[in-house]
Amino acid sequence: MCSYRRRLLVAPALLCVLVGLVARPADAAGDGKGTSGHNGTGTGGDSTLSAQVLKLYEDAAVATGRYEAGRKRAEVQRAKALRVEALLDRERREIGVMHKDLGRIARAQYRNGGGVPLTAQIILATSPEQLMRGQHVFSQANLAVANSIEKSRRAEVRLAGDEAKAAAAWQVLEKRNAELADLKEGIEDKLEEARWELQGKADVSVAAGSCPGAVRLDQKETDSTSAWVTPVARYELSAAFGSGGKRWAKRHTGQDFAVPIGTPVRAVGDGRVVKVACAGAFGMEVVVRHTDGYYTQYAHLASVAVDQDERVDTGQWIGQSGTTGNSTGPHLHFEVRVTPELGSGVDPVPWLSERGAPLG
């Protein structure tokens, strides 16, 4: 079957479920080999469900992006409203100072003859110059009072209007963001339901010891030139290679990636599928032989998107993560081996890093 490079689906970190760490329990008798399923393309129900999970991931990513963008806009508008309110408070203090100045102007006006009627000023004036000085002071005082009152009025009107606009815009954004949050929550609820339905079907297949066949995932072509990538796009690292614990007979043989059920799992490099199995400790698993002779294993899957002996390209989706087999929670168990069999593993972290795909 022809293979091609495909574009990655990035699930938002907000949707990731940081859950159980596991690979092979101490008392597990099986080695994860199980039986290989080569039943061609998966059933219509399986394909539809896998596609539904991927579509919901896309919808959730879009909803999350819109929600975050709206939240940031609301924060900007909130900050603007607070700045305008601070300016208004400052203007109110300045207006208070103006009012005090008006009092001082009025008192000075009275002391300089502003309170004396114009007729009396004419009668009492000892010279034309004295009369003119009195009138000049009176006019200047009136002008100052009028200017102060008008400035105060304009400032109050302008800032009050700005404050009302900023507050109204903030409230609109807050309302819109609440609607986006509800939409996001609804999509996530549907995603969680579909995710566990996918897992349930996978558990049935593993219990029967037979894979249902490749469930093809609609992945668009990509022009990526990277020779190697990480097995999942977004993740949290959990159990590391060589770590100990009751869950494993000896030591942990791979690197675990904590990701939700249904997360697209991709081939880390070009190669050929040498094993597709759906039984044993590893549950649903895929093993790929790469062009440099190394093998990589992808275990505890909820669906498989490739068939045995199929060629795969770097970044091509080969399945969806899950929690099949001996697993205590959703995660991808990833191994790098010298041979296709268990027991020949090397540490995946430096192996990927040497190939330009370091784990974050």
TrEMBL record:
<feature type="domain" description="M23ase beta-sheet core">
    <location>
        <begin position="251"/>
        <end position="338"/>
    </location>
</feature>
<dbReference type="InterPro" id="IPR011055">
    <property type="entry name" value="Dup_hybrid_motif"/>
</dbReference>
<feature type="signal peptide">
    <location>
        <begin position="1"/>
        <end position="28"/>
    </location>
</feature>
<dbReference type="InterPro" id="IPR050570">
    <property type="entry name" value="Cell_wall_metabolism_enzyme"/>
</dbReference>
<protein>
    <submittedName>
        <fullName>M23 family metallopeptidase</fullName>
    </submittedName>
</protein>
<dbReference type="InterPro" id="IPR016047">
    <property type="entry name" value="M23ase_b-sheet_dom"/>
</dbReference>
<keyword id="KW-0732">Signal</keyword>
<dbReference type="GO" id="GO:0004222">
    <property type="term" value="F:metalloendopeptidase activity"/>
</dbReference>
<dbReference type="Pfam" id="PF01551">
    <property type="entry name" value="Peptidase_M23"/>
</dbReference>
